[in-house]
User: What shape does this take?
Amino acid sequence: MRVTERNDGLVDRCGEVRGAGGAGRAGEPERVVVLALDGVYPFELGMPSRILGAADGRYSVVTCTVDGRPVRTNADFTVGVEHGAEALETADTVVVAPVAPVAPARVPPDLPDAVAAALARIPPDARIVSICTGAFVLAAAGLLDGRRATTHWQVADAFRRRFPHVDLDPDVLFVEDGRMLTSAGAASGVDACLHLIRTDHGSDLANTVARRCVVPPFRDGGQAQFIEQPVPEAGPASTAATRAWALERLGEPLTLTDLAAHARMSLRTFARRFHDEVGLSPGRWLIQQRVAHARHLLEASDLTVDQIAGRVGFATGASLRQHLHAAIGVSPQAYRKTFQAVR
Assistant: This one.
């Protein structure tokens, strides 16, 4: 598992090490405060209440805005809440929901004063969670400096430019570093919430909550974000026709010579042009396509791992396991268990 767990030795207000049970005060549920900012995504905003609220009363979830007033969502409605930023002062865990636009390069370099003031009210021992572009808010406040973090893969470049002091890993579902837990886009917020339950109260309760909410019970935080990589559009003297030809023959032992011959180019010219168009070497691209096809067969068929390996062009099941794990951080069995379970 590639999730980083850096123990800062944080102690909660009861004098207990955080994570030892999840309760902020003895005998009371963990107090979770969700911060909704202008432009919030309503789907992700409701995640903590839906997931943590299904954990047999172990969490008390409230939602706040910086001033207690309604906020616009990125949809065609606003949401009203009952709490202002003062709720953050009582939090054991704070969740920052994502905000629009999805391309936060347009977010001001500095946080609005009201948002900065709200974040300053979070207790120093509180656990802080972000979902998707919520990481931009935490980073702008300096809370992620020197830490590993993640956000949605589509905005990773913008994040890196804005926050070079954050160790961004855009290839995972969530990252835990000390009291900071950042997650990627949309459904990875569910994974992060289940991770909180699992950390605080164990796998049995987390699995029970997952069943109640009809979601996969466990996706490793180090698992890749399953980014689609479509074949680029064809152009003059393009290698697109050869890529299409190769995709129909993934089960064959294709070589660079085979590909160049089909494209009627020299090896050197083909390799250079291929890389210019795709951004990968032909060999690396073939591996990606074989892994992608293997994933489809793991989801949609009952073929054995060895049978799938043969159909997608890997010599053995062991080779498929190696390449799948390198690509997305999980085994074929784990991948199939997760995705066949939700078909």
About this structure: The chain is about 40% helix and 10% strand. The chain has a mean pLDDT of 84. The CA atoms of residues 309 and 315 lie 7 Å apart. Residues 30-213 form a domain with the Rossmann fold fold (CATH 3.40.50.880).
